[in-house]
Design a protein that fits this description.
This protein is of the alpha/beta class. About 40% of the residues lie in helices and about 15% in strands. The radius of gyration is 26 Å and the shape is elongated.
Length: about 280
């Protein structure tokens, strides 16, 4: 039987020598040599097993479906297969194995999925998938908690909105400040729209004429961006994050620190563009 070997890492694991791509490939090659499986394809990629768009896995499925011969598809562990039990690719490969069109080999887990797989082995496979998903969910939870704490501390965790710049404070924390070169143009967007004489498209054209561009692409702002800017409460000092309203320390200043102030926000509320301030 010919073999296809697959090695996968996600970003947080690249530095772990035992899970690195070369380490996985070496184990898989040794396994195929011992089993006398000639290797016809090697797939090696770095991407999250939680991403909906997994191009490499799609290529593997297409390759398997386009060949009538039976292959041994070899992974290092079940968690290299996927960390999402709901991924349709998991079901597709598992079904191919149960239909005896391929065999799934998980080398380090000492597990092979074939039509003759026992109930205990199915249980083993399911438990490993569940544990892989739990591990990935736990990482996600930890990241979210870290982000929430940074927000409570008044730190910025994303790319700055247009009209602001990302900076690093003296204490090493990330923050945003008004972009002196473009901030005044953002204020002008609100001023012009508040007159009631500008549509989103007309505003986008006006800002293009005034030289407002995206950084670092240099492309002019689009009509949809103009609408997003007008609806974004951050521009009047409120950050919406994870279904919670949080006030950043940066906007606990006088109106000098804002691109827009409360008086003008009230004016905009008359045209129902921004959410009400409670």
């Amino acid at each position: 039987m010919k073999a296809i070997i697959l090695a996968r890492v996600s970003t947080e694991e690249q530095k772990e020598a035992g899970n690195s791509l070369p380490a996985q490939i070496a184990r898989l090659k040794n396994y195929c040599t011992a089993k006398k499986f000639p290797i016809v394809q090697t797939f090696s990629f770095d991407e999250s097993a939680y991403k909906n768009k997994r191009d490499e896995f799609d290529k593997i499925l297409e390759y398997l479906k386009s060949h009538k011969e039976k292959f041994a598809v070899c992974f290092d562990k079940v968690d290299r297969f996927s960390r999402n039990v709901f991924d349709k690719r998991v079901a597709a490969l598992y079904d191919l194995a149960i239909q005896d069109r391929i065999e799934l080999h998980f080398v380090s887990d000492n597990l092979i999925v074939t039509p003759d797989i026992s109930a205990a082995e199915k249980f083993h496979f399911g438990i490993n998938l569940g544990l892989a998903k739990y591990y990935s969910d736990a990482i996600s939870d930890n990241v979210k908690r870290a982000y929430e704490q940074k927000l409570r501390n008044g730190e910025w965790i994303n790319k700055a909105y247009i009209g602001y710049r990302n900076v690093t404070r003296e204490d090493g924390a990330k923050d945003v400040v008004i972009d002196e070169e473009r901030g005044f143009l953002l204020k002008k967007i609100f001023e012009l729209y508040a007159t009631g004489n500008y549509s989103m498209k007309k505003l986008a054209n006006e800002m293009k004429e005034r030289g407002l561009t995206n950084y670092p692409s240099g492309l002019p702002v689009s009509t949809s961006q103009i609408e997003q800017i007008l609806k974004n409460p951050f521009y009047y000092g409120v950050l919406l994050r994870m279904s919670m309203t949080k006030l950043l320390k940066i906007i606990k200043q006088t109106s000098k620190g804002f691109l827009w102030n409360t008086k003008n926000i009230r004016k905009l509320m008359e045209v129902s563009i921004l959410p009400q301030i409670s």
